[in-house]
């Protein structure tokens, strides 16, 4: 994919959603860190359902420590891998209190040193909480980048590095959220909603799902006649905003 196409893709994504952000619910940077830590191999919806009743009273790392491991573990038991995540979350809270006076650090090195915090989690926090250009490549971004031809790669780090190089600078800060939302609601895994996609004409995917009219086989008798192309709606699906900004 050439640079001109990439620029048009992000122009359209920006026009459809001028202020994208994470769908995780949080009130401050600490809560965001914990929510992202819990979201590994889990949906944002499942994390929000669990943390809603925790974040009502737990605003700081000390609040989580005061709650204790057993209670915290019980409250997140609906999330996948909840026992391991609970231990990592409490260990992270202890380090934040002991080494950072309860403040979430804004450097990659410090974040990735926290239990349960890998590169992807650090990227989300750096981007969403601290406004640093970063690309947290999850399954949605990996799929969209490869399927569209935007930044194809064999692994998440390769895709991340390519996106950081290829995304136009003026769109780099929000690109992570646009691509996640596009993959979550339009460019879905099994049957992409190409007929609803605002960037379908720019996408280089060869097996687009454009509806029955587009898939109709050629006539085998009589005079061949081209199938009439269905009118495509070029607007992205709006995203419901229920997200609170970083405090």
Quick rundown:
The chain is mainly alpha-helical and 247 residues long. The protein has helices at residues 3-16, 29-38, 44-55, 61-67, 69-75, 82-100, 108-112, 119-128, 139-148, 156-166, 172-185, 212-215.
What report would you give on this structure?
This protein is 50% helix and 0% strand. It has 12 helices and no strands. The chain has helices at 3-16, 29-38, 44-55, 61-67, 69-75, 82-100, 108-112, 119-128, 139-148, 156-166, 172-185, 212-215.
Note the main attributes of this structure.
single chain, 247 residues, mainly alpha, Endonuclease III, domain 1, 12 helices, 50% helix, elongated, disordered C terminus
The number of helical segments is 12
Global geometry: elongated
CATH topology of one domain: Endonuclease III, domain 1
Q: What is the terminal separation in angstroms?
A: 38 Å
CATH superfamily of one domain: Hypothetical protein, domain 2
Describe the secondary-structure layout.
Blueprint: H1 3-16, H2 29-38, H3 44-55, H4 61-67, H5 69-75, H6 82-100, H7 108-112, H8 119-128, H9 139-148, H10 156-166, H11 172-185, H12 212-215
Helix pairs in contact: 2-8, 4-6, 9-11
